[in-house]
Amino acid sequence: MRFEMSKRAARRFVPGERLEDAITTAKELNEVGIMAGIDHLGESVEDESLARKMADVYVQILEEIAAKGIDSNISVKPTQLGLGISNELCRENVERIVKKAAEYGNHVRMDMEDSSFTQKTLDVFKSIRKTHPNLGTVLQTYLYRTEKDVEDAIENGYGLRICKGAYKEPSDIAFSKKAQVDQNFIKLLEKLLGERARKNGVYVGVATHDDKIIDWTKDFVRENGVGKEEFEFQMLYGIRTNLQKELVKEGYQMRAYIPFGTHWYPYYMRRLAERPANLFFFAKTFLGE
Ligand SMILES: Cc1cc2nc3c(=O)[nH]c(=O)nc-3n(C[C@H](O)[C@H](O)[C@H](O)COP(=O)(O)OP(=O)(O)OC[C@H]3O[C@@H](n4cnc5c(N)ncnc54)[C@H](O)[C@@H]3O)c2cc1C
Question: Which of 30, 121, 135, 219 is deepest in the core (most CB within 10 A)?
């Protein structure tokens, strides 16, 4: 993380280490019609006072988003806010952030981390969501349990992001073949975009760069009269930027997830692992193009 060249390579996915880098990037994306979701990088915090400080950072991000008039919500990592220490600590921190977001009419998404935190994340989410509808969370289609969690989300009208899942999970709890994960994505998305879900207030962020799933979504919403304002596409900053702009031109809502901060290493490694071709770009940066 200390090497300038690694930092330069990571810039492809992380626009910078300072909040102003994320705000500038969000502003540029807003100018081409893309909404933002800002994430302060960091996870696995094991110190209570640090977890509370991380919540302070999110309060500051919300203040800055409001002050600069940016169209951006925020995403928080539960283990950065103390979920590895206790549910109660994480709950206090997330609730403080969510209350501040509500003051500004803004929204918060709790990211989903590895499976050891799935139930805890959902427990904290549900306890706050009861009184704060501006909080949503994320479900991962590689987990077998997600079908049941989707049913629960539909029953309760939650705001959700659905994605494939970025962590290495054992085969007794997760699909191991990409085709199964993709198939499950479509199966669950069909429910989340369905009439019952929308009537109950579900609003889904379709978080993928996968052409097959994006095309399926476009066909489904057209054939079933789902309004373009009733869901959104989401992608990561730096990935398939042209496609992000194309979707905006076609009239879809598009949100880019913008991470910033000094703790970019695990996030960057997940992006490299997802697509081996990224290692080539990494090597090119090291070898000076
Ligand atoms: C907005 C957003 C939020 C997310 N939040 C979470 C979360 O909370 N928890 C979680 O576990 N996961 C999260 N993810 C990550 C997600 O689970 C996947 O790991 C990631 O999106 C890659 O899967 P894919 O759907 O793009 O499909 P894939 O089949 O992996 O990729 C489809 C195509 O997208 C492009 N692509 C995908 N990944 C990359 C990459 N790294 N570099 C370059 N091109 C790439 C390639 O063209 C590839 O062929 C999030 C993803 C997005 C977009």
Answer: 135
